[in-house]
Amino acid sequence: MPWKNQGGGPWGSGPKGPWGTGPQPVGPRPPDLEDLLRRGQDRLQQIMPGGYFSGIGITLILLIVVALWLLSGFFRVQSEEQGVVLRFGKHVRTVDPGLNYHLPYPIETVLLPKALRVSTISIGMTLIDDPARRGRSIRDVPEESLMLTGDENIVDVDFTVLWRIKPNGVGNFLFNIQNPEGTVKAVAESAMREVIGRSEIQPILTGARTQTETTVQDLMQKTLDGYGAGVQITQVQMQKVDPPAQVIDAFRDVQAARANLEQLSNEAQTYANKVVPEARGKAAQILQAAEGYKEQAVAEAKGQSARFLKVYEEYKKAPDVTRERIYLETMERVLGGSDKLIYDGGPSGQGVVPYLPLNELSAKRPTPGQLPSGGTR
């Protein structure tokens, strides 16, 4: 008999230890499993006449086992999952989210991949927990992000790939590739290195980002389709494209110089676009004026030559009369607008003869009713 059941042990009666009384139970005592099993066996014997191993008892047990086995075929597919049912390891069908049923194990089994979820893979950077900031921070991974361009420059590229399982490619996704996430990451890094290796650094750093993303996405999709991976690349996003940290200041100076060059070139082009049309307009105006003067001079010359020919014809008919007429017309044209004095230089002349300016007098003649001084009567 153990010492705790002895009435008079070396430390007294009852369940005591060498340091006093034994441990006392705190709170309600846990149920006794042996007692529960004994009660269950008694009730089962009452239900099964003849005991466990009678014909009826064995049949009832088998029916319960078969029912539980058949009920084990029910399964639920969540909203972002698709159920892939395997019959003896062979893919037989794919089921949509909701409550579904398959033949119980080992006839059929089900796999539940996250076929409707868009997954994200980051290359060149990784997210780590930062207890100091109570969040997550980004850490660069240079062995993934440093790449060589086509003009033998090094560029640091961090990018993100968004991917999902193809709607009809769940079977290929499960059975054709062993590590889907690792495969997508390796293909993404390889495709980006190939595209960067065919490009120069300047377009990558400035305006060719969208074109690079599209090219990488197409190349990744083509490669994964060749693997039969059942993966669809939805988007490639370039997060950071910079030169290496050791030379980034020099690259920024070069970028600033190129920006200034482009600005000055645009200003010069703007000035040229302003000055050249004005010069062309002035040149066209001068040409038109010269053309007009040419036409006028030619027309006047032709008119004068025609007039001369007509005068010459008349001159041949009556030379004296024509000569007199030409003289009078010439003197009228020369002396018509000048002041004239008549000088009598004969032997009986008086010298300068007063000349009555009839034209001026007629111009200054007062109107009827007006005095010569400008007044009125």
UniProtKB/TrEMBL annotation:
Transmembrane stretches, start-end: 52-71
Gly residues: which segments have biased composition?
1-20
Where does it primarily localize? membrane
Q: Which Gene3D superfamilies match?
A: Band 7 domain (3.30.479.30)
Q: Name one GO molecular function term.
A: peptidase activity
Q: How does it sit in the membrane?
A: Single-pass membrane protein
Recorded hits in SUPFAM superfamilies, A to Z, give: Band 7/SPFH domain (SSF117892)
Arranged from A to Z, the UniProt key words for this protein are: Coiled coil, Hydrolase, Membrane, Protease, Transmembrane, Transmembrane helix
Enumerate the residue ranges of region (Disordered): 1-32
- Which InterPro entries does its entry note? Band7/mec-2_domain (IPR050710), Band_7 (IPR001107), Band_7/SPFH_dom_sf (IPR036013), HflK (IPR010201), Membrane_HflK_N (IPR020980)
Q: Which CDD domains match?
A: SPFH_HflK (cd03404)
Q: Where in the cell is it found?
A: Membrane
- Residues folding into a coiled coil are 247-274
**Pfam family name, one:** Band_7
Gene Ontology biological-process entries: proteolysis
Q: Which domain of life is it from?
A: Bacteria
Domain called Band: residue spans: 72-255
Free-text function comment from the UniProt entry:
HflC and HflK could encode or regulate a protease.
Can you state the subunit structure given in the record? HflC and HflK may interact to form a multimeric complex.
Q: Which NCBIfam families match?
A: hflK
* The family this protein is said to belong to: Belongs to the band 7/mec-2 family. HflK subfamily.
What is this protein's record name?
Protein HflK
